[in-house]
Sequence to fold (138 residues):
Amino acid sequence: MEFYAIADIATSHQQIQRDLQIGALPRFCASIDTVLRDAGDEGEIYCLWGTLQVRRECIRAGVRFTLPGCPNAIAWTITTGYPPAPDRVVIHCTMNRTEHEEDFIESIGVFVADWKQGLEAVFGAGVDRRSVSTDRSV
Fold:
Protein backbone atom coordinates (compact mmCIF):
# COMPACT_ATOMS: atom_id res chain seq x y z
CA MET A 1 0.00 0.00 0.00
CA GLU A 2 1.02 3.56 -0.59
CA PHE A 3 0.15 6.69 1.34
CA TYR A 4 0.81 10.27 0.19
CA ALA A 5 0.61 13.77 1.54
CA ILE A 6 1.80 17.05 0.08
CA ALA A 7 3.19 19.56 2.54
CA ASP A 8 2.33 23.14 1.66
CA ILE A 9 5.93 24.32 1.81
CA ALA A 10 8.66 25.05 -0.68
CA THR A 11 12.21 24.06 0.20
CA SER A 12 15.21 22.43 -1.42
CA HIS A 13 16.30 18.84 -1.31
CA GLN A 14 19.53 20.11 0.25
CA GLN A 15 17.62 21.56 3.20
CA ILE A 16 15.60 18.36 3.55
CA GLN A 17 18.81 16.30 3.61
CA ARG A 18 20.49 18.68 6.05
CA ASP A 19 17.61 19.00 8.52
CA LEU A 20 15.94 15.58 8.45
CA GLN A 21 18.43 13.67 10.58
CA ILE A 22 17.51 10.76 12.84
CA GLY A 23 18.07 12.83 15.97
CA ALA A 24 15.54 15.41 14.76
CA LEU A 25 12.72 13.01 13.84
CA PRO A 26 10.45 13.84 16.84
CA ARG A 27 10.64 17.51 15.87
CA PHE A 28 9.19 16.74 12.45
CA CYS A 29 6.72 13.96 13.25
CA ALA A 30 4.50 13.74 16.36
CA SER A 31 4.11 9.98 15.77
CA ILE A 32 7.78 9.56 16.66
CA ASP A 33 8.03 10.11 20.41
CA THR A 34 11.71 9.56 21.14
CA VAL A 35 15.03 8.79 19.52
CA LEU A 36 16.55 6.04 21.64
CA ARG A 37 19.79 5.79 19.66
CA ASP A 38 21.26 8.01 16.96
CA ALA A 39 24.32 6.69 15.10
CA GLY A 40 24.19 9.00 12.10
CA ASP A 41 22.22 7.27 9.37
CA GLU A 42 20.85 4.54 11.61
CA GLY A 43 19.31 4.44 15.02
CA GLU A 44 16.39 3.36 17.13
CA ILE A 45 13.14 5.21 17.71
CA TYR A 46 10.08 4.82 19.87
CA CYS A 47 7.01 5.61 17.77
CA LEU A 48 3.31 4.81 17.54
CA TRP A 49 4.20 1.21 16.55
CA GLY A 50 6.69 0.67 19.38
CA THR A 51 10.48 0.50 19.43
CA LEU A 52 11.97 0.09 15.96
CA GLN A 53 15.29 0.35 14.19
CA VAL A 54 15.41 3.17 11.63
CA ARG A 55 17.75 3.89 8.74
CA ARG A 56 18.18 7.12 6.79
CA GLU A 57 19.42 7.46 3.24
CA CYS A 58 19.93 10.55 1.10
CA ILE A 59 18.25 10.12 -2.27
CA ARG A 60 18.14 12.30 -5.36
CA ALA A 61 15.31 14.59 -4.25
CA GLY A 62 15.45 14.30 -0.45
CA VAL A 63 15.64 11.47 2.08
CA ARG A 64 14.33 7.94 2.58
CA PHE A 65 13.72 6.33 5.95
CA THR A 66 13.23 2.60 6.43
CA LEU A 67 12.28 0.44 9.40
CA PRO A 68 14.32 -2.71 8.66
CA GLY A 69 12.86 -4.78 11.50
CA CYS A 70 9.26 -3.86 10.77
CA PRO A 71 7.17 -6.87 9.69
CA ASN A 72 5.36 -4.61 7.20
CA ALA A 73 8.60 -3.17 5.75
CA ILE A 74 7.41 0.41 6.25
CA ALA A 75 9.47 3.02 4.43
CA TRP A 76 8.87 6.69 3.67
CA THR A 77 10.42 9.43 1.60
CA ILE A 78 10.40 13.19 1.97
CA THR A 79 11.17 14.74 -1.41
CA THR A 80 10.80 17.85 -3.52
CA GLY A 81 11.26 18.85 -7.14
CA TYR A 82 9.30 16.05 -8.80
CA PRO A 83 5.67 15.16 -9.51
CA PRO A 84 3.09 15.02 -8.15
CA ALA A 85 4.01 18.44 -6.66
CA PRO A 86 7.42 19.64 -7.88
CA ASP A 87 7.12 22.96 -6.04
CA ARG A 88 6.09 21.40 -2.71
CA VAL A 89 7.30 18.62 -0.41
CA VAL A 90 5.89 15.14 -0.94
CA ILE A 91 5.61 12.58 1.84
CA HIS A 92 5.29 9.06 0.41
CA CYS A 93 4.97 6.06 2.71
CA THR A 94 4.81 2.42 1.64
CA MET A 95 4.38 -0.97 3.20
CA ASN A 96 4.71 -4.46 1.75
CA ARG A 97 1.08 -5.48 2.13
CA THR A 98 -1.92 -4.97 -0.14
CA GLU A 99 -4.31 -5.47 2.77
CA HIS A 100 -4.10 -5.00 6.52
CA GLU A 101 -6.27 -4.37 9.56
CA GLU A 102 -8.14 -1.08 9.32
CA ASP A 103 -6.67 0.20 12.61
CA PHE A 104 -3.14 -0.28 11.30
CA ILE A 105 -3.96 1.40 7.99
CA GLU A 106 -5.41 4.34 9.93
CA SER A 107 -2.21 4.55 12.01
CA ILE A 108 -0.17 4.93 8.82
CA GLY A 109 -2.50 7.72 7.73
CA VAL A 110 -1.90 9.43 11.09
CA PHE A 111 1.86 8.95 10.66
CA VAL A 112 1.85 10.57 7.21
CA ALA A 113 -0.43 13.40 8.39
CA ASP A 114 1.91 14.02 11.36
CA TRP A 115 4.84 14.31 8.93
CA LYS A 116 2.90 16.81 6.82
CA GLN A 117 1.94 18.91 9.82
CA GLY A 118 5.44 18.78 11.31
CA LEU A 119 7.19 19.72 8.08
CA GLU A 120 4.82 22.65 7.57
CA ALA A 121 5.32 23.83 11.16
CA VAL A 122 9.11 23.55 11.15
CA PHE A 123 9.61 25.05 7.71
CA GLY A 124 7.24 27.90 8.59
CA ALA A 125 4.29 27.54 6.21
CA GLY A 126 0.65 27.57 7.20
CA VAL A 127 -0.81 24.14 7.75
CA ASP A 128 -2.73 22.92 4.71
CA ARG A 129 -5.62 20.73 5.89
CA ARG A 130 -5.95 18.63 2.72
CA SER A 131 -6.36 15.00 3.66
CA VAL A 132 -3.79 12.28 3.25
CA SER A 133 -4.51 10.13 0.21
CA THR A 134 -4.27 6.38 0.27
CA ASP A 135 -3.75 4.20 -2.77
CA ARG A 136 -4.75 0.69 -1.83
CA SER A 137 -4.34 -0.64 -5.35
CA VAL A 138 -0.59 -1.16 -4.93
About this structure: The first strand starts at residue 2 and ends at 7.
